[in-house]
Amino acid sequence: PPPPPPVFPEPLPPWDAKLADVLPALKARADAGDHVAACHIGLALSACAMSLSYAPSKAEIRQVDPKDTRQLSFLAMRSMDGRRPGREQTCEGLQDTTIAERFRYLQQAADAGIGAAMRAFVDGWPFEESGALVRHAEWLRAYRARTPHYVRQLLARADPEMVRLLGGQLDGMRVGLMAQTLELSEREAAVYFRLRSLLNGHPETAIPANWASPENIMVAEREAQRLFADRFGGRTIAPQQQGFRRTDHFEVESCRMQP
């Protein structure tokens, strides 16, 4: 078996630490084999990439009439990290080349089995910056090669967030990186759609009749009930885990090694 990762006595920096100040030490730890530090880097830089891609440019701000309070409010909203206000300030002073390191470190953490890194990777968060896929074709190749393995790992751990992500694949549109990479069958997608409803505490939410064949709906219902009972112990997700914050895959506090 591979040797265990090194243990560092110093705690990782808080989520609101300015990354330009803490990245050198974080990268030294990650490069030495600290996969939790790699996860921290990958998530934090991915959040910066998204935040900066939505933020208005200085030219946009200059063009706004100072009396146009509605437009000024809109630009202010774009400048703020909507999932975690204040996180955008951690990105100040970062170079584009530094932000582009997010994929390498997130992949390191995901390969090490850290659930937060695998979920962010599978859901495509490192690509959310406009034009990332055009500039980094090698990222797309790595994504397609690794995502099925990460999904299998998360499902083996009965990860409810992975079920939530798969539960949105039944519409048949095959949009998005994950859908195009996994290519779930209609029956598989129906199982996860129904299992997501059960986990969310909404057993009344049936699979729409026009989304799957009657046979696949019947089989999916049976399989979803079995997985809900056997893998999740029949327990629903707490209501606070079902809201908007649940989709924030950038929370560095979620970086931890799987026991």
Question: Which features does this protein show?
Answer:
259 residues, mainly alpha, globular
Largest beta sheet, briefly? none
C-alpha end-to-end distance: 16 Å
How do the SSEs run, as a string of H and E? HHHHHHHHHHHHH
Radius of gyration, taken over Cα atoms and rounded to an integer in Å: 20 Å
Summarize the structure.
This protein has about 260 residues and is mainly α.
Topology:
Layout: H1 19-31, H2 35-54, H3 58-62, H4 69-79, H5 96-99, H6 102-111, H7 115-122, H8 132-135, H9 137-156, H10 160-166, H11 177-182, H12 186-199, H13 214-230
Description:
By secondary structure, the chain is mostly helical. Helix 2 runs antiparallel to helix 6, helix 6 crosses helix 7 and helix 10 crosses helix 12. The radius of gyration is 20 Å and the shape is globular. About 2% of the residues have low confidence.
